[in-house]
Design brief:
The chain has four helices and no strands. The longest helix has 18 residues. 16% of the residues are buried. It is elongated, with a radius of gyration of 13 Å. Helix 2 crosses helix 4. Helices cover 70% and strands 0% of the residues. The protein has one domain. By secondary structure, it is mainly alpha-helical.
Length: 77
């Protein structure tokens, strides 16, 4: 079983490679579902279950929604 910090590190690296800075998608729920499926699939390949991610970071959909919102924000002028 992976440690919480290992899981957080894996997810942060995964998000950096898979969540792009862009305007928020019109179909946010579908985009979150797509990313969550890819994340959990990639995590399983590294011995991390969806439950492991949930215990480390909370609800996967909520986490990814927050990260998409973060990536979609423009920096203050």
């Amino acid at each position: 079983m992976q440690t919480k910090s290992d899981i957080e590190s894996f997810v942060n690296i995964w998000v950096a490679h898979n969540v792009r800075v862009a305007p928020l998608p019109a179909n946010l729920i579908q985009e979150v579902d797509r990313l969550a499926a890819r994340l959990t699939g990639d995590a399983r390949a590294h011995g991390i279950s969806g439950g492991d991610i949930n215990r480390a970071l909370g609800d996967i959909d909520d986490y990814l929604t927050g990260r998409i919102h973060d990536a979609g924000e423009t920096p203050p002028v």
